[in-house]
Design a protein that fits this description.
The chain has 23 helices and 10 strands. A hairpin with a 2-residue loop joins strand 4 and strand 5. A 6-stranded mixed β-sheet has the order 6-7-8-3-9-10, with helices on both faces. A 4-stranded antiparallel β-sheet has the order 2-1-4-5, covered by helices on one side. By secondary structure, the chain is α/β, with parallel strands linked by helices.
C-alpha cells in the first residue's frame, strides 16, 4: 500500500511532462528506432554465417551484408544521440524548473516553518532528492521503454525463428520477474533511509561551519569531528545496506540470464545437429539472448530508479504542499494617509509551544514620532517588532499600520515600508556594497540620473548616517570588500552599522532598530542617533535597546516586562516615576562612574 502511495507522487510531475511532451515524444521515437535497428543486426550475422557455412558465397555478398550492418550501426549511433538529447535534455530542464519552484516556495515560507525544518534537510531535498527525481523521469523512463520494446521484440523473433528452442531458453525468465518484484520495495525503503541520513549529515556540516568561531573559541573541534564522523558513518551504513541489496540483485539476474545461454547451447546444439536449425540460426538466437540480458537488468534498474524517484519526489512534495502560514489577503486594503502611523490594541501573542510572549500590549505611534522600547531579555521586544512587520501573525484587529490591519495589507507592500535592523545583523557572503544596496533597482527607477552614480550617492549617504564611512576607508577594497559568510571578517559593531545602512536604503517610511547599537561605542552611537534625528525628521522611527543612552532622545518610551507594558511615557516622566527605566538609567550611569543610587530604591 505504501509502495503505491509513493508512486502516486508522480502525478505531480504531469504539468512538467506535459510541457515537454513533444521532446519526450521525439525522444521515444528515436529510442524505438534504435531498438528496431538493434534487433536487425543478428539477422545480418545469421545470413553471413549461413552463407559462409554453405561454402557457396561471393565476397560481394559478404560485402553487401557488412555494408548493411555499418549503415544500421550508423543509424543506431545517430538515434542514441538524439534520444539522449530529447529525453535527458527534458529531464534536466524539469529538474531546473523544480529546483527554482522549490527555492521560490522556500522564500515564501513563514518564520515558523524554519523553526520546524533544519537547513541541512532542506538542502538535501533541493539537491540529492531532485537529482533522483530527474533520474527517474530521464534514465528511468528510458530503461522502462527500452526494456519493454527490446524484450517484446526479441521474444517474438526467437519464438518465430524456433519456438521449441526459445521455450526452453526462456525458462529462467519468470524467476527474474519474481526477483524484481521482491527487491523493488526493499530498494525504495533503503534508499529513503539513505536520503534521510544524508540530510542529517548535511545539517551537521551546515551547523558546524556556521558556528566555526564559537567551536574554535571553546576548543570543541574534537567534539564536532566525532559528531560528523557519527553521522557520516550512519550515511555510509545506510548506503552499504542499499548497495548490498543492489549488489545481490544484479548478480542474481546475471546468473539466471547465463542459464538461458547454457540451455540454448544444449537444446540449440542438438537442433543444429539434427538439421532443424542452421548454424546462423543458432548464432542469431545466441545473440538475441545476449541482447535480452539488458532488458532484464534494465527492468531492475527501472524499478530502482522509479522507487528512488518516488521516495525523493514525496520528500520534495512535502515541502511544496506546505502552504506559508502568512500570506497576502485576496483583496488587500489601501492605507489611510490620515490615520496614525502605528496602533497596537491589546496585543497578546503565544508561540506554538504555548509560551506567552506578549500580554495585552497597547501603543499608539504618530507619524514622524521617535519611539523607544526597553525591557529585560525575553520581555517580548523582538516579538512585538515581528508582529508589526507581520513576520508572525498577530490576532486580527490588534496591529494597525496606517489605519489598516497588518493582516489586510499586501505583504510585500507592508514590509516594503519598513527598514528593519534585526538583532542578529545577518549579512550575506558578498561585498559590503551589495549587502547595503539591496533596493538599488527600485531606487534607480524612482530617482533620475545614471544608476552607477546614483548607487554611489546613495551608498555615501547611508554609510555616513550609519557611521560606516570611516571604516570603509580602512578596507583594502573599500565598499567592494568581500565580508565572508554572515559578515565573518567584520567586527560586531561594523556588522551592526552595515545592517543599519542597509535598513536606511530607500528612505523607509518606518525605521526599526532592534538592539542594533549594542556593539557600538558611545561616541559612534551618538553620531548615528544625531544624524538619524536630523535626516529622518517627519519619518517614524522605533528603537529597541537595553541602553538608556540609546533611548534618551525618544519622544515616547515603552517598557516591557514579561510581555506586559510595565511603564510608558517620555524619558523625563519615567525617570520621575523611579521605576524600571529609572533604575536602569542609574545602573548604567553607575557603570560610567557618574551616578548616585540615592532615591532609586532596590
Amino acid at each position: 500500500m505504501r509502495h503505491g502511495s509513493s508512486l502516486g507522487e508522480f502525478k505531480t510531475l504531469l504539468p512538467y511532462l506535459s510541457r515537454y511532451r513533444v521532446s519526450y515524444m521525439w525522444g521515444f521515437v528515436c529510442l524505438i528506432t534504435v531498438d528496431a535497428a538493434q534487433v536487425i543486426i543478428p539477422q545480418f550475422m545469421r545470413r553471413a554465417v549461413d552463407l559462409i557455412a554453405s561454402g557457396r558465397f561471393t565476397w560481394q555478398e559478404i560485402g553487401v551484408l557488412c555494408a548493411g550492418m555499418v549503415g544500421v550501426m550508423a543509424l543506431i549511433s545517430l538515434g542514441r544521440f538524439l534520444w539522449r538529447y530529447f529525453i535527458h535534455g527534458s529531464s534536466r530542464r524539469i529538474e531546473t524548473e523544480m529546483r527554482e519552484t522549490l527555492f521560490e516556495h522556500l522564500l515564501a515560507m513563514s518564520y515558523d516553518f524554519y523553526q520546524k525544518h533544519k537547513i541541512g534537510d532542506l538542502m538535501a531535498r533541493a539537491t540529492n532528492d531532485l537529482n533522483a527525481v530527474r533520474m527517474s523521469i530521464g534514465l528511468g523512463l528510458v530503461a522502462l521503454v527500452d526494456g519493454t520494446v527490446m524484450a517484446a521484440s526479441i521474444l517474438v523473433i526467437i519464438f518465430v525463428q524456433d519456438a521449441r528452442t526459445a521455450a526452453f531458453a526462456v525458462l529462467p525468465l519468470p524467476f527474474i520477474t519474481a526477483i524484481m518484484l521482491l527487491f523493488g520495495s526493499a530498494l525504495g525503503n533503503r534508499f529513503k533511509k539513505a536520503q534521510e541520513t544524508y540530510a542529517a549529515m548535511s545539517d551537521t556540516v551546515q551547523e558546524t561551519f556556521a558556528g566555526i568561531r564559537v567551536i574554535q573559541a571553546f576548543v570543541k573541534e574534537g567534539w564536532f569531528i566525532k559528531k560528523f564522523a557519527d553521522t557520516n558513518d550512519d550515511y555510509r551504513e545506510a548506503n552499504m545496506a542499499l548497495v548490498k541489496l543492489y549488489g545481490a540483485f544484479f548478480p542474481l539476474i546475471l546468473f539466471l540470464s547465463g542459464l538461458t545461454t547454457v540451455i540454448l547451447l544444449l537444446v540449440g546444439g542438438i537442433r543444429v545437429v539434427e538439421g532443424f536449425m542452421s548454424p546462423g540460426d543458432l548464432l542469431a538466437l545466441f545473440r538475441y539472448l545476449q541482447m535480452l540480458i539488458w532488458p532484464l537488468m534494465g527492468a531492475g534498474f527501472t524499478v530502482n530508479m522509479i522507487q528512488r524517484g518516488a521516495v525523493s519526489l514525496k520528500r520534495v512534495n512535502e515541502i511544496l504542499n506546505t502552504a506559508p502560514s502568512i500570506t497576502s489577503p485576496p483583496a488587500p486594503q489601501k492605507p489611510d494617509g490620515q490615520a496614525e502611523a502605528l496602533v497596537i490594541r491589546d496585543l497578546s501573542f503565544a508561540y506554538p509551544d504555548g509560551s506567552e510572549a506578549l500580554k495585552g500590549v497597547s501603543l499608539t505611534v504618530r507619524q514622524g514620532a521617535w519611539v523607544g522600547i526597553l525591557g529585560r531579555t525575553g520581555s517580548g521586544k523582538s516579538t512585538l517588532i515581528k508582529a508589526v512587520t507581520r513576520m508572525i501573525d498577530p490576532p486580527r484587529g490588534t496591529v494597525l499600520v496606517k489605519g489598516v490591519d497588518v493582516r489586510d495589507w499586501d505583504l510585500n507592500e507592508l514590509r516594503g515600508r519598513f527598514g528593519v535592523t534585526p538583532q542578529d545583523s545577518y549579512l550575506f557572503s558578498d561585498s559590503i556594497r551589495n549587502n547595503i544596496l539591496y533596493r538599488r533597482e527600485q531606487d534607480a527607477a524612482a530617482l533620475p540620473g545614471e544608476p552607477g552614480n546614483l548607487e554611489d550617492t546613495l551608498l555615501k549617504q547611508v554609510t555616513g548616517l550609519a557611521a560606516l564611512d570611516r571604516d570603509l576607508g580602512s578596507f583594502a577594497q573599500g565598499a567592494d570588500t568581500l565580508i565572508g559568510e554572515r559578515g565573518l571578517t567584520l567586527s560586531g559593531g561594523q556588522k551592526q552599522r552595515t545592517a543599519i545602512a542597509r535598513a536606511l536604503m530607500g528612505e523607509p517610511e518606518f525605521l526599526i532598530l532592534d538592539d542594533a547599537l549594542s556593539a557600538v561605542d558611545a561616541e559612534t552611537e551618538k553620531r548615528i542617533l544625531t544624524g538619524l534625528l536630523a535626516e529622518r525628521a517627519g519619518k517614524t522611527t522605533i528603537i529597541v535597546s537595553h541602553r538608556v543612552s540609546t533611548l534618551c532622545n525618544a519622544g515616547y518610551l515603552l517598557v516591557l516586562d514579561q510581555g506586559r507594558v510595565a511603564e510608558a511615557g517620555t524619558p523625563l516622566e519615567l525617570t520621575a516615576r523611579r521605576g524600571f527605566y529609572a533604575r536602569m538609567a542609574a545602573l548604567q550611569q553607575l557603570d560610567q562612574g557618574t551616578a548616585s543610587w540615592e532615591g532609586y530604591g532596590a
